[in-house]
Design a protein that fits this description.
Layout (H helix, E strand, L loop, with lengths): L4 E2 L4 E2 H9 L26 H4 L2 H25 L6 H13 L3 H21 L2 H29 L10
Antiparallel strand pairs: 1-2
């Protein structure tokens, strides 16, 4: 049994043998549930004149990695601070994905998971449950706020005058 995988098709050698035995000899065909980016080839998207020269391509990859690292680092800093932290982190991953296969695979996995979560959130049962839980939470917050106002009045819990 061969455990190697073909990164360009996302298929292991054993899977390719199984599909050939079953008459499905289309290793380039993406899964129907995988999404529209699954069929895109993996690998560097650098211009051809850069790929043709090894040292230039290596320099290009280092530059892409450094820029992506700076953007991801800025996103990580923005997580506790004001700013779109996760959006910036995914932008950095997209920069890395222009050159590195592992980042392309991470972005594909993330897109697939986000799509699945969005479909689950649109399920009527889940929406009804979320509306009920939100309503219960708002009622609890309202009751706690009412108890606070009844007990202390409209006084802030901190003392600015002192």
């Amino acid at each position: 049994m061969n455990a190697e995988s073909d990164e360009r098709t996302g298929e292991s050698a054993a899977d390719g043998d199984k599909s050939a035995q079953q008459g499905n000899a289309t290793p380039d065909a993406p899964d129907s549930a995988a999404g529209d980016t699954e069929g895109a080839p993996l690998g560097s998207r650098a211009p051809e004149f850069i790929k043709a020269r090894r040292t230039l391509h290596l320099s290009w990859q280092v530059g892409v990695f450094v820029v992506g690292l700076a953007v991801v680092g800025a996103g990580i800093v923005m997580l506790p601070l004001p700013g779109p932290g996760w959006l910036v982190i995914f932008a950095g991953m997209a920069i890395w994905a222009t050159e590195f296969v592992w980042a392309q695979l991470v972005l594909r996995w993330t897109k697939r998971k986000v799509t699945e979560a969005a479909q689950r959130a649109l399920d009527p049962k889940v929406r009804r449950r979320n509306i009920i839980l939100t309503s219960i939470g708002l009622v609890i917050i309202g009751v706690l706020l009412g108890i606070y106002l009844w007990k202390f009045g409209l006084v802030m819990p901190w003392k600015i005058d002192e």
